[in-house]
Amino acid sequence: METSEKIGGGNDIFEDNHISNDGSICGYDSLHHLLCANLKPHLFKEVSRLLLGMNCGKAIETLVLPDSAKVISSKHDFDLQAFRFGADKESLREPRVVRVGLIQNSIALPTTASFVDQKRAIFQKLKPMIDAAGSSGVNILCLQEAWMMPFAFCTREKRWCEFAEPIDGESTQFLQEFAQKYNMVIISPILERDDNHGETLWNTAIIIGNHGNIIGKHRKNHIPRVGDFNESTYYMEGNTGHPVFETAYGKIAVNICYGRHHPLNWLAFGLNGAEIVFNPSATVGELSEPMWPVEARNAAIANSYFVGSINRVGTEIFPNPFTSGDGKPQHSDFGHFYGSSHFSAPDASCTPSLSRYKDGLLISDMDLNLCRQLKDKWGFRMTARYELYADMLASYLKPDFEPQIISDPLLHKKSS
Prior knowledge:
The protein is of the alpha/beta class. Helices cover 27% and strands 20% of the residues. It contains 11 helices and 17 strands. The protein has helices at 31-38, 41-52, 67-76, 115-135, 170-182, 263-271, 285-288, 292-303, 369-378, 380-383, 386-396; strands at residues 61-62, 79-85, 97-104, 140-142, 185-194, 200-208, 214-219, 225-226, 229-230, 245-247, 250-254, 276-281, 306-311, 313-314, 337-338, 342-344, 360-367. Helix 3 (67-76) runs antiparallel to helix 4 and helix 4 (115-135) packs parallel to helix 5 (170-182). The longest helix has 21 residues, at 115-135.
């Protein structure tokens, strides 16, 4: 793997957290590149083993992509990385290798531009990135949360609702052409306008089949009410359950953004048979960055499936300042969307992350046989006590619920 060149100067570094104004970490585009550039090779190898885990007993392998994809990446200046997750060879099953891609991107025009121009510019920005995925033979591609617009949901301004589209709207039609052209399943998270139910808005992921057909949709289950990210002004919790979509390339599910903080949400997709769960997100460094590499990886381990985590990039500045109800002064942006998209595997291995500040395409080959192999190894489905959890949850939902707490009888006894 090539080491990233340092960018920017040390004068841009904030003293408290060493995050530069350009979004880099001490001048590097990711933690992985920072460590690679500053540790001796034998130390970097050991640190990588601990941070990224081991896939089938060895370090995760890089994947060679066609020159056509590299040319597109260079011309349009986006990060391009590729890795391979293997599985043990089996006697009764052939390998089930699927090539999966994640795209992270910043918006293309200022939020003050006309909505029509903003959307068209995002389409044009993503076109070469999707072409690079297609020319690389990607089978399943997932875009970031609300990819077709700025992430305006916390301004509480209703005019941003104009970006909402029906399931078969402009964004879907744009991606259907690529799905047909490259024989590729595409997951498209959008702001949905539900014309059949009074034009209600939802935060929705549309699954487009490799023939350009619409397989189905999933609506965001958990809506954040944290600081700037209080999105219930626009949409409420979804009503589609935890669907798993059987595609030509495997069984996939979509855990949209804030749902990654809820372990039972991850569990439900696993119980429904998911082999790959995508987590399209929009989150900023001050709020969640320490959690970002942990939660998806833990979900992959606990549920014996692969996870693809996508986060948008950049700082989106809005024309009208807003407040968060947290006592902080009014401001015009949420902070820096730190990218860092990555894949996690059921054996606890994971890829390095994409850049913290650049658009990027991350590609991974993954042998889906690894899912069953880890189920057999750890036996989580056999050793789980679902009946105990079900009883506990049923009890918890009752108004007269009392926690099961056994107090030390001497705890409140007065000393003689």
